[in-house]
Automatic annotation (TrEMBL):
Highest taxon listed in the record's lineage: Bacteria
Organism this protein belongs to: Paenibacillus rhizosphaerae
Source lineage: Bacteria, Bacillati, Bacillota, Bacilli, Bacillales
Residue ranges of every copy of the Insertion element IS150 protein InsJ-like helix-turn-helix domain listed in the record: 16-67
UniProt GO molecular function: sequence-specific DNA binding
Stretch list, region Disordered: 63-82
One Pfam match: HTH_28
Protein's UniProt name: Transposase-like protein
InterPro entries assigned: InsJ-like_HTH (IPR055247), Trp_repressor/repl_initiator (IPR010921)
């Protein structure tokens, strides 16, 4: 659970690619985290799982609306009835 005032780190796609490549070359999670300045070693485990399941596209940030959903015409909200 996040704590009040906690700041989360975000990492570029390039950093994620480097981390995955380093892990595939046999480096430990701790070594990779130290080399790339990654604060949470658990992130590497998540990136490796996503890479194995989806390839490089799994490393891209999926938060927010995708371009496909922005092009679909739909009402923003239902009208409120009083």
């Amino acid at each position: 659970m996040a704590k009040k005032g906690q700041v989360f780190s975000s990492y570029s796609l390039d950093t994620k690619r480097k981390a995955v490549h380093m892990r595939l070359q046999g480096m430990t999670k701790k070594e990779v985290a130290a080399a790339l300045g990654i604060a949470d070693i658990g992130r590497l485990k998540v990136w490796m799982r996503k890479y194995r399941e989806y390839g490089e596209s799994g490393l891209m940030d999926q938060r927010g609306r995708s371009r496909e959903t922005l092009t679909i015409d739909r009402p923003l909200a239902e009208p409120v009835q009083h």
